[in-house]
Amino acid sequence: MTKMIEHFFSITSPWTFLGFQRLSEIAARNGATVVHKPVDLGKVFSVSGGLPLPKRSPQRQAYRLVELARWRTYLGIPINVQPKFFPVKGWPAAGMVIAARERNQDYGTLAHAILRAVWVEERNIDDAATLEAIAAAQGFDGRALIAAAEGEAVKKTFEADTQEAMDRGVFGAPTYIYKGEMFWGQDRLDFLERAVKQG
Questions:
Q1: What's the CA gap between 2 and 4, in Å, rounded?
Q2: What is the CATH number of the domain that holds 37?
Q3: Are the C-beta atoms of 65 and 82 separated by less than 8 Å?
């Protein structure tokens, strides 16, 4: 039976970006598959006590930048801690990932490319033409995915995945769930891999 890691994330989260490729590598090393589920983090915060970044205290906002810079150095992953196009709505970007997932396409690659566009490439993922170009560079029909993202079926899946996240106790992004055990944050990937290795 295939090992499965569920990945609940925000398509605009820097922490999701820092963990994304490492998650893929963990899965590959251990014969696991990853199910990526973009969610509405605002709704998750509304039931879990979290605050969107602009509403956090100045101290917390400042320390977040320090931590991002520390992790950038430690991991050797390029990331602009204050990108030009952030915060962004992230829709239809998240919907494109869902649409690609439902078409059995390599949606993990698309999600990672979108995250990289925000945090490394200074691109505006709220712009449709930019999203089409990002998707095309990864071999996807961006226009078709955007059209699907604007459809009711994909929006309902997004809502359902968000509700599932809340029902299962998710309170931030990224969150990884393996065999019912939750691991919150890219800094818990070592613990996740230990669990996956155990079977």
A1: 6
A2: 3.40.30.10
A3: yes
Please list the alpha-helical segments (H only) found in the chain. 14-29, 41-48, 58-75, 93-102, 107-119, 128-137, 142-149, 152-167, 189-197
SS (H, E, C) 108-128: HHHHHHHHHHHHCCCCCCCCH
Domain residues for 33?
3-197
Q: How far apart are CA 9 and CA 16, in angstroms?
A: 6
Across the beta sheet with 175-178, what order do the strands follow? Answer: 32-38, 3-9, 175-178, 181-184
Global pTM exceeds 0.90: yes
Give me the number of domains the chain comprises.
Answer: 1
CA 130/CA 1 separation, integer angstroms: 39
Kindly state the tokens that stand for 128. 């449709």
Model confidence over 116-171: pLDDT tens digits? 999 999 999 999 999 999 999 999 999 999 999 999 999 999 999 999 999 999 99
Amino acid type, 145:
L
